[in-house]
Amino acid sequence: MKKDGDIFRFASNEFSEKSAARLSNDSFLRALFKEETAYTPIWLMRQAGRYLPEYRALRERVGSFARLYKDPELSCEVALFPLARFPLDAAIVFSDILTIPDAMGLGLSFIENEGPKFEYPLRDERAIRELFVPDPFDRLRYLADAVSTTRHALAGRVPLIGFTGSPYTLACYMIEGGISKDYRFVKTMIYDRPDLMHHILDVVADAALSCLNAQIESGAQVAMIFDSCGGVLSTAAFREFSLPYTRRVVAGLIKEKEGERIPSIIFTKGGGAWLESIADTGCASLGLDWMTDLGEARRRVGGKVSLQGNLDPQALFAAPDRVAVEAVKVIDSYGPDATGLVFNLGHGVSQFTPPEHVAALVEAVHRYTRKPKSTKKTR
Amino acid sequence: MKKDGDIFRFASNEFSEKSAARLSNDSFLRALFKEETAYTPIWLMRQAGRYLPEYRALRERVGSFARLYKDPELSCEVALFPLARFPLDAAIVFSDILTIPDAMGLGLSFIENEGPKFEYPLRDERAIRELFVPDPFDRLRYLADAVSTTRHALAGRVPLIGFTGSPYTLACYMIEGGISKDYRFVKTMIYDRPDLMHHILDVVADAALSCLNAQIESGAQVAMIFDSCGGVLSTAAFREFSLPYTRRVVAGLIKEKEGERIPSIIFTKGGGAWLESIADTGCASLGLDWMTDLGEARRRVGGKVSLQGNLDPQALFAAPDRVAVEAVKVIDSYGPDATGLVFNLGHGVSQFTPPEHVAALVEAVHRYTRKPKSTKKTR
After folding, report:
1. Is there a contact between A293 and B273 if contact means CB atoms under 8 Å apart?
2. Cβ–Cβ of A273/B292 closer than 8 Å?
3. Which residues in chain B touch residue A352, judged by CB atoms under 8 angstroms apart?
4. ipTM of the complex in this document
5. Is B44 within the bounds of a domain?
6. Cβ neighbours of A184 in B, within 8 Å
7. pLDDT tens-digit series, residues A62-87
8. Which of B99, B62, B89 is nearest to B154 (CA)?
9. Which residue among A69, A75, B50, B333 has the highest number of C-beta atoms inside a 10 angstrom radius?
10. Can you give the pTM of this predicted structure?
11. Which domain CATH number covers A70?
């Protein structure tokens, strides 16, 4: 693998449009804004992940996941891996949603086969009252640098997505101390001490917003919010503890930079019942999990937002020709006119996915949706 | 604990109405049929489980979970545990959904803290082609006996629920060999060899139906189908691999026994998007998970079926007074007139639930919903 990060060191993270080429492929941005595109753009959540042998090799060499995302040049190298293999229409900064709680002092580590762990989970009121919003250009400098490095390395090839966890999702990990099966501590707090939960969410929302805006200032062209845990809430609890804080992040986002609009995408795993409310936050697009019917989602909220999704990630275990068939089913379920659709999986790529199946997917989506005569316009 | 199972040995499982008292509390049956009741009946999924110290003590003494449910008298004793503590309005036979695949020869065992494991998961075509429907009065005799023993011990106090896993859910466990995080083998089969999956479902549907009918013949007054895994399917896959087989079970159920109608309940965890189709199977009632809004579910399918649910099981971690508040919120979300509502959790009781919180819940539901003047009628 060519390691070309060294030339991308900047004194400032203020990304300047002049320093990078204009976008040569803007289909992703256009689809997010429901504009016409020559074909349906595709990118995949976790597209730069463990299913790629080059990723596994680099991680082995470097020694840990954290060393990869904390080094802007390595982060950039990883973010570009899938683009070297597949003609994807977007890149996403290689990082982790838990960098924010880590910067808040919770002591993040990643244990092999166990996932993330916090040394200091939020379990007592004093620690909760002491929570603070970290400076995204100080404690999260490496993330801002990863964004600007990756943006420059992309050189306008495709747009770059910056991201954060939703305040509720970040709070879940902060309280449980890692991945949880039953969210016992979170739920106890929600039902017993909702005031404490609201205080955490209040601080975390400000932290998530400042971190995502820092990524935009550093060159991210799209802002994505992952509400991975929101779907475990009751409808009433979702409306109280997740939605208002995600809305606050969306409302505070930088909306335009150097003449280009910055669209935002909200992905709520298990949030199919609440699409209308999520679309009302002011985001440009909704990411859909694979349980949600794309056609029905379009009827419900397609007038307001574009949609991104939603092939079952496990469909990629099937043989390449079957993968293509399933991809076409997803596109057809959206309706005859695919305007406003970004193809994606309904969740992240599984580590067990053969890369050649991903190649078959990308090829199938582009081939099936490409219009007979090009209607592509320059932006 | 009084162990009174010894007097309930029968030569035949054909339960005779004459041999048991008539129901003294029929509020659960009436609510399932959307008839008026004096208060909203309540029972809890997994109400006879590990959160009860008497259960843990008995299991410790007996040595394993399987020994409990395979012995009709012990199964009966466990099923009655929660009724001795709380004025619940229904009992459920104490067993496991995986008894059916076990009887099909897959070799079930339960490993401490790991859950169920099959010695022979379905991984090759030959084994799949050899699947057979077990005789429920032979290989599952212990289950039929547990039902009749429990029904007699209840002596008409409350109705007894018999149950099965849905064909799709049973197939999931049979293919994965146990609990799965990603359903890798199932999904590969669904997308790669749908013909094999349909063959498994075909046999399992017959097995589930004959097992559930055997429970009805043995004295079960309500038939429940748990589709615990259906919610991990895409809408298209749910309509192809789960729903038709559940519908076939419902269609084949014994509908009336000795002059009493036998209602059926379908619980699909994560199935909120598909309520209309599930209600169309001909079941009497839908069990709802806690993510589904009860009021909205009622607007969508309340004309057709009664509803059962749906407090977040984790709300029981809160203090008893908070539990009561949350219970009232759930009841209010159903609407001012609670006809056709059976109170339950949105999933099984967590093992970490303090029993006194369950007591507070049952008390709150009964107190809040009891009508000023009794309108209770005898059946």
Report:
1. yes
2. yes
3. 182, 184
4. 0.89
5. no
6. 314, 317, 350, 352
7. 999 999 999 999 999 999 999 999 99
8. B89
9. A75
10. 0.91
11. 3.20.20.210
